[in-house]
Amino acid sequence: MSRILDQRILLLVILLSASLQSTKVLSEWKKCGDPECEKAMSRVQAITDYLGPDCRYLNFKTGEEITVYSKLSRENENLWTGSKGKDFGYFPRDAVKVEEVLIGEEVEVLTKETDFLCLHEDKYTFE
């Protein structure tokens, strides 16, 4: 009985840590093309295959085109946010090369908690 209880507690700890990791705030600030972060900033092309660590990340293959909508700033400038078809998520900026800049000036805004949730088919997924 004690062993089963220990296994259940361990499983609960693992599930909680995975949930916290998938909703972790990656940065307090981001740069966008407009204050609402709705305007596309640039068009980039993947220079390497990328498979993200969780559902918040955009997976892609070399050569695919991605539209960039925001770039995390200050404490985590390596991650950009973009879309490829219906898929949307974070990816490292060094995995792409800029093909076309679509805005003249970037605006820095605070991130929101919803920026770091998984989005599947127009619905937020709460881990």
Automatic annotation (TrEMBL):
Name the record gives this protein: MIA2 protein
Biological process per Gene Ontology, one example term: protein secretion
GO CC term (a single one): endoplasmic reticulum exit site
Sorted UniProt keywords: Coiled coil, Endoplasmic reticulum, Glycoprotein, SH3 domain, Signal
Main location class: endoplasmic reticulum
Gene assigned in the entry: Mia2
Membrane association type: Single-pass membrane protein
Start and end residues of each SH3 domain: 39-101
Signal peptide range: 1-27
One Pfam family here: SH3_2
Organism: Rhabdornis inornatus
InterPro entries noted in UniProt: cTAGE_MIA/OTOR, SH3-like_dom_sf, SH3_domain
Subcellular location as annotated: Endoplasmic reticulum membrane
